[in-house]
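Section 5.1 Outputs to date
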Amino acid sequence: MSYKDDFIAIYEQNIRREGSAALLDYLKKSDFFTAPASSRFHLAEESGLVRHSLNVYFRLKELVENEAKPWAEKIGDESVAICGLLHDVCKISMYKIDYRNQKQPDGSWAQVPYYTIDDALPYGHGEKSVYIINGFMRLTREEAIAINWHMGSFDERNSHGGKVMAAAYEKYPLAVLTHAADLMASYLDEVNR
């Protein structure tokens, strides 16, 4: 099975609310399954976005199931799938391939491809994912906050101390767990060592 097949199977098994089929159709028609996860950091390669989304889903599922507090009783499988699989839909149609000169081992120069950012909808990051998802299906308040703040201290909106994010984390455990899962996937599962 491919990453796309794995994603679709998990999505269809867990996400069933009204509008979810239309959202999945949108993802299939977009570059979601071929886009990189970033331009130069984690999984900056073809299909990196779908791989990262799966990694975050599995990390989040594990955190919810194994956390000392009984989060699994409060956070359902559908919410875990929504937050894990869809937190970065903001990256759809965001990366473009460009070329630059790079010195080769033999001393010659060659044009090599790289990803650059060309964001047609500069709406932010987490808030853009919430906006896109809500165009198809309604998120719960906790899901929306978890996706909105999944970047944690890396979110540009935290330049003034992150008080809003801290309040969100205090009130919504799913937001903390989604951020932790995103960090773990990005820095533990997706690094080149």
